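User: Okay, second chain of the day. Same drill as before: sequence in, structure tokens out.
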Amino acid sequence: MITSIKNHKKQLILFFIAGVLSALIEIFLMKLFSLSQVLPRFFSFENKANAYPLSNFLSTGGGILSNYFFSIRYVFKRGKHSKRKEFYLFILLSVTTMFMSWGTFAFFHSFINKPVDLYFYTMGDIVFCKALAIFLISLINYIAKKKIVFSS
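Assistant: Same drill. Structure tokens below.
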């Protein structure tokens, strides 16, 4: 029982680290693709006014792919599915939870639209709502990937 709890805690910590690394890769790719010499040079719609849609799409894809790599390498053990099915399930869950995150953020932001005083720090409403959405959806993401994609 205690070993199982320790393994679960270790897996949660590794899942968190994999998520942070994937987020850093996604942010790096977003910055790279949105440089004026890269995608905006070739596509007129790729600009700040349009929120760099192609850069955002490609960087999100890079984040999802890096998260898949980290997840199969360090977090989860292969489950009952073939590698191909496992990959498709992982991508499907990642895209689904991405939309859930956007919706959750919009929901929270419809109620919280002023900076939030945390007594020791005042956090902007957008950052606070994004953090709440990320936390909630990460829990759902972890459980879904563990039970559906990497289940034994």
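The beta strands are 116-117, 122-123.

User: Thanks, on to the next one.
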